[in-house]
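@channel anyone free to eyeball this complex?
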Amino acid sequence: MSDASLSSGAAPKPRGKSLLVQDARTRKRNAAEKRFRAYGMTAILIGLFFLVVLAVSIIRSGAPAFTQTVVDVEFTLTEEQYTAAEGELFKTKAYEGLLIEEIRTALDARGIEVAFDADAIQRLLGKPGGTLREHYRANEQDLGSPVAFKLAAASRVDGYLTGRVTRDALQDSRFLQGSDLDLIDALVDAGIITRAFNWNFITGADSGVDNPGGAGIGASVVGSFFMMLVVLALSLPIGVAASIYLEEFAPQNRFTDLIEVNISNLAAVPSIVFGILGLAVFIQFMHLPQSAPLVGGLVLTLMTLPTIIISTRASLKSVPPSIRDAALGVGASKMQAVFHHVLPLAMPGILTGTIIGLAQALGETAPLLLIGMVGFVARGYPDGVLAGFTEPNSAMPAQIYTWAARADASFYEKAWGGIIILLIFLLTMNIIAIILRRRFERRW
Amino acid sequence: MPILWLFLIVSGIAIAGYYLGLARVMQSAGGDRRHMHSLPSYYGGNVAIKAAVPALLLMLVWLLVQPMIVNNSVSALIPDSAIDENSSRGLVLSEVRRAADGLNRAVAQGTMHADLANDPQADPDEVTSRLQDAGAIVTSQITRPILNAAQSYRQQTQRGNLLMSGAVIVLALLGALWGLRGAQADFRARNVVETAVKMLLIGAASIAILTTLGIVLSLVFNTIEFFRLYPASDFFFGTNWAPSFSGRGGSSDLGVLPLLWGTFYISVVALAVAIPIGLFAAVYLSEYASNGVRAVAKPLLEVLAGIPTIVYGLFALLTVGPLLVSVFGRDGLGIMQAGTAVITAGLVMGIMLIPFVSSLSDDIINAVPQAMRDGSYGLGATKSETIRQVVLPAALPGIVGAILLAASRAIGETMIVVLGAGAAARLSLNPFDAMTTVTAKIVSQLTGDADFASPEALVAFALGMTLFVITLALNVFALYIVRKYREQYD
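replying in thread with the prediction:
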């Protein structure tokens, strides 16, 4: 009260500042605050922008790999033509002649006139005579009735229609000539050249350097599948056993410390070093078969073990000690308490971690290249289950790498398409992991 | 596949032993399980473990040792004169193995009589043509020493496999008998089984040590072998990387410095992209973002870390590279020759590393106690001032650790640089030049068809060793920093 009476005598000193009016310094500080916030927002947006660009470029460049240009002709072969063609010296040539006539009549019927010869057809379709002959020799009952053939067009025709090969940039070669483009245009107008879903891309095998059109990823999907079987069969039991020991039984001593340090270091070792390990130990030292999914699976097992051990330990740790105490209290041994009570409760978390580890292994490329699982060895499906483990094969990411490294730009489209398939697998695995976590996760 | 059969037989013995053990202990307890020391299943398990584990261990050891012994004895059969000038013993031995495989296949298909396959006087030309008929991969004509070595290899392997099958089955049976003898009511079966299970658990945990040991040994031995063929000083201080492509020529320059420079440069570019974006993203997510934004943005950013590196490699090669060329290339600024360059690989790798930096930093920033922020606000600091002057300094050790981990990741990254950085090893300061890295050269030196004994292939192991040591040092250092400063505020 005395203070108030004192100050009431003197006139209140105006401080010159109002809370309602910001001075220069406050404005500066507030502007800095806004800027800082904007930087943060920009960083997030840049990150998300990259994600979108990545997704768009994958989908846009990869989608064409799933369709292919086909020449759609309805073809009728009479019995007489068949016997005549089979009687000739160049049998496939004879079929080709018949096919050309068929195309010519189809074009005439639509009133389109364009000049072409047998060579042009070969440049467009490869060797269509062989395909026709094979069909009729296998299905003689089709003779005399019309059969609709979808003949796969050469990859450069594909390229012309998708815009990769342009009329200006085209140089006449034995693969495609300027005059062929007129024919292609005419056939497109007539509805004879269409696009169809490319089943061969999903089910086929690598076709070699010269034939981008026939390349498929099926064989390497099988290779990846067998590899994942090995990884699952080894890394799940070993990883769970190791985590149980470290989390539940290991005493505090140097040996345990050594294991812990090793696991945390292995988790950060570059994947290519595991490839070197696989090459030196499994192939050079143990003489396991080169390029085999078995060896790939072993290498990836060693690589994913740290991931699985770390996530398994986390989920074992999240089971509350009261569960263990209760089990021990009613007379279970320590081992029984862990295997009968703790492990089942931790299982959802363990499975989630395992699936994520598998997804990581599925996308790994570098170590596979070192043990010889490159794309061009995936020339066909393995015969039999055992052969699936030991016969040379490739894996999806290695196959994609092989396509990307080839000089022919037509393979790039296949590589993007392969990535779409790979990502579909990864997405499925991750969604399963998320569902498992949502459904079974227990908060204690 | 005899190994599979052997495995099944041993498993069969173990399963049979389990039930026999159950029956025997029931009998010994007079049918009343209250007289037993342990639950009945432990008595069965005791028999099964004693039958299966020693037998399978013997099988594993045998499978590892037998090829070594056979290889040595077969190698002694091949005189030096049978080895071509530009070949090596290792190549001849793999030829021998192929021929032996071919003989097996031919006999299995019935295209060759077993007598001919074992006849040391057989005509090598005839054998070659028969093998080719059977679909075996025979690279060239089989010579007489190779044929004889292959026959010996085949016979020894067959004999070894037979012996192994016998020994393993006998051991399994003995083990089962040993277990059965103990199947008495007063036998402490649970303790035995639990000790065995614990041993298995320890064995599983030791695989991590074995893996590290395998990595170190395979790197060290081959690196020593490399330094025997190529002077170590030239490797560590050489500024020229030019391996000869023949795979056997002595005129290779294998200096590691250009590769290390490329690795370092690309990693620096990558970190220059990832650190600011990742750090600001982490700050925004942990300090500013509402719960809704955080729940969406954080997982989406983490998707970037889950995408396989081959996808980033392709993205660098086919999307980012051409894009950069169109801006900086001949039609634009004219300072970039081709799409594969340091800047391409670095940029894409930076994108990949964003979530590494952001997630780890986010966790660390969240771990800074709220009291410190409240104290700063109480003194009148704005939010950004608090973050810059209080939160980030407090979280700095952890953030440095996170950045070091990201750097070690960048140095070890392979597919992005293989596809995006080019193949030319050079010492240059221009980020628009193509350069190459240690990892990319490991791939190219080991996927070619160079002989494994040549310095051109062995250099990959020396490169791997360099890489392993650098990343290990970075990881250890990062963990040390994180550990040392982590508990400061607890």
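from a first look: Residues 189-229 of chain B form the longest helix (41 residues).
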